[in-house]
Amino acid sequence: MKDETKLVTSGRDPENNHGVVNPPVYHASTILHPTLDALESSRERRASGERGVYYGRRGTPTTFSLEDMVCAIEGGHRCQVYPSGLAAIAASLLAFLKAGDHILMSDAVYAPARRFCNDLASRYDVSTTFYDPGIGAGIAELIQPNTRVVYVEAPATATFVMQDIPAIADAAHDKDCIVMMDNTWASPLYCKPFDLGADVSIQAGTKYIVGHSDVMIGTASATKEAWPAIEAMAGLLGHAAGPDDVYLAQRGMRTLSVRLKQHWENGLKLAEWLREQDMVEVVMHPALPDDPGHTLWKRDFQGASGLFGTTLRPCPRKAIAALVDDLELFGMGASWGGYESLILPQDPNAFRTVTPWPYEGQCVRFHIGLEDPDDLIADLSAGFKRLKAAM
Ligand SMILES: *Cc1c(COP(=O)(O)O)cnc(C)c1O
Predict the structure, then answer these.
(1) Is the same domain home to 152 and 166?
(2) Ligand 1 atom 2, closest CA
(3) How many domains does the chain have?
(4) CA–CA separation, 97 vs 330, rounded Å?
(5) Closest CA to 205 of 117, 335, 91, 301
(6) Statement to judge: residues 216 and 279 lie in one domain
(7) What pLDDT digit, counting tens, does each position of 303-361 carry?
(8) How far apart are CA 119 and CA 121, in angstroms?
(9) Smallest Cα–Cα separation from 110: which of 65, 152, 157?
(10) Catalytic residue, candidates 3, 107, 182, 291
């Protein structure tokens, strides 16, 4: 079956739910066991790592439905749901680390993942080296005897730099390291991390899986070998995503293929238009043929989402404000992956330490939503006129 079909069919069980199309929302903490035999066999199944309903925190048919959907599309042996993408990142890292270990993390990584390493892992004697995301097979030289996790994210959230994940994964596996990928940009649909060599793939489901800017959720999928550590750490940390949020995530995911196709098309149209604007220095979008990451994107990804970056020519802050303050269709705020367009000025150098971003002008990140692209272009066009008038 193709992914589009699996998005419709996976994680559903109408036959056991009175014919109801969508999986029901189980609100549950206590699970009752009718007899001592049932209680004991339930405990045994749980101890053996079998999936089952034992206690609300450890999952219900509602959670399993989303986990099955993500696995069906992203691949991997099993998937674990968390109450946010960052919770999935933190729990996945903790799953493999102990005192004295070392992490290799892309310098262009999602900033809160960097903070987890610097501010929390460090307190437990786990050290981190941030590496140039473009390092490829050269990562081998940075792997120390105590390196346990090599963490990749492509394209990078702020600068959209691509990574040669198969080359990095090969080098990491040669030294028995776990390869963890943040696959949020492409969603489970447009990148298959396990085919590229990842052992764990993380989704901020908050973004495209949910698709409507109204739920926080995260997932980590893992290979058969990596799964027991992920499952055990989830049990130790006790994260539990709320059933209504999990339900909304699986419902959002049903339409992922049509939404993403449109985000891709609209995003590319806007990226191409932005490239022609004289106030735009560079557009960072790996699906543009002359982007430095284009070859890797073409080789390793099946599509592009609606998130990309630009760097403006240097201009005063008041000119940037004139651009962004009066846009009608672009909201300004963190997150992305919803149906609506967003614009976000940000400074990549605020969270890079080994590969400074070389441009002087303001970085502006765009998320292109499902509006008509010509309306978005008209809105931005008026914005650039205001910007120039304010210079
Ligand atoms: C948003 C995001 C996260 C974190 O997800 P939350 O659900 O906001 O915690 C992780 N990685 C990337 C690339 C993101 O954009």
Answers:
(1) yes
(2) 204
(3) 2
(4) 41
(5) 335
(6) no
(7) 999 999 999 999 999 999 999 999 999 999 999 999 999 999 999 988 899 999 999 99
(8) 6
(9) 157
(10) 182
Of 46, 57, 175, 261, the catalytic one is 57
Here the CATH number for the domain that contains residue 276 is 3.90.1150.10
Distance 85 CA to ligand 1 centre (A): 5
CA–CA gap between residue 256 and residue 305 (Å, rounded): 11
Pocket of ligand 1 contains residue 184 by CB under 6 Å: yes
CA–CA distances in Å: residue 293 to residues 53, 109, 150, 286, 299:
44, 16, 20, 5, 10
- Among the listed residues 26, 82, 110, 359, the single catalytic one is 110
Q: Return the residue whose CA atom lies nearest to atom 8 of ligand 1.
A: 85
Q: Which residue has the tokens 């990226």?
A: 271
- Non-local (6+) Cβ contacts of 335 within 8 A are 206, 207, 213, 342
Inter-residue contact 192 to 74 (CB < 8 Å): yes
What spacing in Å lies between the alpha carbon of 31 and ligand 1's midpoint? 32
Q: Tell me the residue type at 37.
A: D
119: containing domain: 3-253
Contact predicate 207/340, CB 8 Å: no
Q: Does the C-beta of 110 come closer than 6 Å to ligand 1?
A: yes
Residue 73 CA to residue 252 CA, distance in Å, equals 14
Closest atom of ligand 1 relative to the 84 alpha carbon = 7
Q: Is 82 a catalytic residue?
A: no
CA of 207 relative to ligand 1 center, distance in Å: 7
Query: Tell me: the pLDDT tens digits for 192-234?
Result: 999 999 999 999 999 999 999 999 999 999 999 999 999 999 9
Q: Which two tokens stand for residue 56?
A: 């609300």
3-state secondary structure of 78: strand
SS3 326: coil
Contact 67, 81 (CB under 8 A): yes
pTM for the model stands at 0.97
Instruction: Say yes or no: CB of residue 10 within 6 Å of ligand 1.
Output: no
